[in-house]
């Protein structure tokens, strides 16, 4: 399926040349699909002629969100170059092994990332190109490279895993994955060319590219691109009423809920999705009270990312569920007969699934079952109606007194406490029980949970062995770019609470 496809920029420009594709909120410039296509051709030619890149070569990019990133992404598709978006939050010392791992030769960057880019280039001997500098202008100076049919199975760009459990791996992303994700998310939320959305999540993360910017681009819709997340700026745009589709991670919705500007937005007019991590029920209720049902989903960098999404019709009665597997993704639960209720590891296959990790055959083999299903590492429960709820990460489970404890279950209970906005629970060593829970809590605004009373409150709702042994109040939790809580960091904090 989709082994060969038309060039994305060229085909979209053919269909709707004068329609607006991007509004760059950092520069104020509006880009039509025809302008995007013309620029893609010039940049693709520059990559080949000016930088001497050949198909299969890797090109790094270190930048905040801007329209030129997506132009570069599609130029790489046309030239056959593999793009590698790097994490601008990381220092050069962390980026260097990642860049070496994939064999980078050149690095494009924006002004805010210039110091990091130059330091990295000095360490690895890279050639750098600043988006707003003369070298980038030289890239644009060549006759455009014409569009061609694209091999949709070859690596197009690389995204690095969040690294919550170890060294990040380079996940191969293909044009076929992009189109399959467009089908999966598009039919799930009713995405069309009449829609308008916002791009602000980091571009080194799959959501920054694929939820919903690339699906909306392929559908002929419009994206407002913010350099990065600033709650006040984003809420001001939402208050204008032009945005129809919105995707965020839990930390985004939490920031909105704490802002006085939230009252200026008509939330009932928005269709909203959430992924990256489970959205706590109290936050779901905050937006539901304002007429907006946020649909939880589940996916991975390795799945395009859209695999599951809750349908709006059932969202209110299925809080906590991630819905059903979407059109082009097959799902099975390990150890559970197809169609039966039960819990098991989520395993997936289909055109949205990555072919593997770049030049890492060992990790690729470990990620798939012998019969070709991607192992998610997440345990899910399927109910009688075929809806799924993520129970927890297999690696997060701990054993206390011989009993399995799933932190996500405990977190869901704590999130119902009237003074708790968000909870994170980890397993820590204990001389008597082997392991016990340690809970870290973000209080609701203006409230302070009574930590001494929490064990008793939990005992009314949880078995004794599931109740955390310690409770700690924090202003925020360490997170990945996807909004997932970095539990290894919490374990380090538990070992050294006062560094």
Q: Care to describe what's here?
A:
Strands 13-14-15-16-17 form a 5-stranded mixed beta sheet. It has a 4-stranded mixed beta sheet with strand order 3-2-12-11. The protein folds into 2 domains: 4-388, ANL, N-terminal domain (Rossmann fold, 3-Layer(aba) Sandwich); 397-495, ANL, C-terminal domain (GMP Synthetase, Chain A, domain 3), CATH 3.30.300. A hairpin with a 3-residue loop joins strand 24 (420-430) and strand 25 (434-443). Helix 2 packs across helix 3 and helix 4 (92-102) crosses helix 5. The chain has 16 helices and 26 strands. The chain is α/β, with parallel strands linked by helices and 499 residues long. The mean pLDDT is 94.
List descriptors.
2 domains; GMP Synthetase, Chain A, domain 3; 5-stranded mixed beta sheet; 499 residues; Rossmann fold; alpha/beta; 16 helices; 30% helix
Total beta strands: 26
Q: Helicity level, as a percent range?
A: 25-40%
Low-confidence stretches: none
The CATH class of the largest domain, by name, is Alpha Beta
Structural class: alpha/beta
* Overall shape: globular
Strand order of the main beta sheet, please?
13-14-15-16-17
Structurally, how many domains make up the residues?
2
Radius of gyration, in Å, reads 23 Å
| CATH homology-level superfamily of the largest domain | ANL, N-terminal domain
Largest sheet: 5 strands, mixed
Cα-to-Cα separation, first versus last residue: 53 Å
Number of helix segments? 16
Give me the CATH fold name of the largest domain.
Rossmann fold
Instruction: Determine the strand fraction and express it as a percent band.
Output: 15-25%
Query: CATH architecture of the largest domain, please?
Result: 3-Layer(aba) Sandwich
Give the rounded overall mean pLDDT.
Answer: 94
